[in-house]
Amino acid sequence: MTLRNGREFLAIPGPTTVPDEVLAAMHRPAIEIYGGRLEAITHSLLDDLRRVFRTEGRTYIYAANGHGAWEAALTNVLSAGDTVLVLESGRFAIGWGEMAAMLDIRVERLPGSWRRAVDPAAVEARLREDTAGSIKAVLVVQVDTASGCVNDVQAIRQAMDAVGHEALLMVDAIASLATMPFEMDGWGVDLALTGSQKGLMTPPGLSFVAAGPRAVAAHETAGLRTRYWDWTLREGEAHYMKYCGTPPEHLLFGQRRALDMLFDEGLTAAFERHRILAEAVRRAVAVWAGGGALAFNIEEPAQRANSVTTILTGDHAVRPLLDYCEKTCGVVLGVGIGELADQAFRIAHMGHVNAPMILGTLGVVETGLAAVGIPHTRGGVQAAIEWMAEAVPAEG
Ligand SMILES: *Cc1c(COP(=O)(O)O)cnc(C)c1O
């Protein structure tokens, strides 16, 4: 017996649900690549990405997933033999560091925990020891999609400033941009990057890098520059140079529509929607956790991200729950990854999500917990409902 026929809910932290409007915007013939129409879309995207990153800096569009943006970021500002400090708070900054290591960058990991955000005081202490200034960049994620933590980027910048360290601050905002505040210039971030397929509600395949003045200055002498990622070449006059080849037209059409939707809603309203929906998920998880089997991966409530929640399943196998939710009920949850493989599941609340999608997902998880026999306190969905009604009162 299955209850899954009907619309499937994709509740994984990327790719996320693509709005029908975005899919429709992509459903059109290819257009020629030397004319003004495509050029206008490119320029509007480059400008509007500045609005999303909140920067006056330069923006670049790559036909690549987030890993491509990682490589673009590293190769444009660093040289072989440079040292970077990777701030651990889960899987993703570590992965960025692994990519750096293969480029012959020296990678030092500031040890952290999968259960906590980066400690700015530890960053400050490590940089204080680096009196020779050998660390050229600090790499951190705003939200770690594996652990579900949110790092305080502004506090990390303040820690760097407190020791007057010259390193560039490079931030992966792939799982956070458009879901929560990010102030590239306001916080003193030198380089930021994101992908199309999470908060930006577009299919995977595009990624974006924003560079502030210090990153642009570092680019002048960077030794790792390559033909494909190079910012200088992408500043070239001819339109195709913006992409180092054929523009990924259909993804650009889709991303254009998605940004229009985001600006129609308003960035602040989108952040607030994410906050309220994320809190609904947390209210439900907090109730379920009363049964003793489930727990939030991130211990400190203030460090839990508004885009994804990671839930530990303790001694209980997680696969039967995931299978029940997907195969019987049509809700696809995120699996635990890295250190948390087979020990956790993740509920994404990122991008094109609304109240029925979140309540539907929570309802299915609670159904699944009961069906597969994972001990939990009942009433998680009820707590989510009460929170939403309180957070968003009726108008008038
Ligand atoms: C998804 C994600 C990535 C990787 O992006 P891909 O498009 O899969 O290459 C990197 N960092 C974070 C924080 C992510 O959430």
Task: Provide an overview of this structure.
With 396 residues, this protein is an alpha/beta fold. Helices cover 42% and strands 15% of the residues. It contains 14 helices and 14 strands. It has helices at residues 20-26, 36-53, 66-77, 92-102, 120-129, 153-162, 184-187, 213-221, 231-234, 249-265, 267-289, 319-328, 355-372, 380-391, and strands at 9-11, 58-62, 83-87, 106-110, 135-141, 143-144, 149-150, 168-172, 191-195, 207-211, 295-296, 308-312, 331-335, 344-348. The strands form three sheets. It has a seven-stranded mixed beta sheet, sandwiched between helices. A five-stranded mixed beta sheet has the order 1-13-14-12-11. Strand 6 and strand 7 (149-150) form a beta hairpin. It starts with 8 loop residues before the first strand and ends in a 5-residue tail after the last helix. The mean pLDDT is 97. Bound molecules: pyridoxal-5'-phosphate. Pyridoxal-5'-phosphate (PLP) binds next to helix 3.
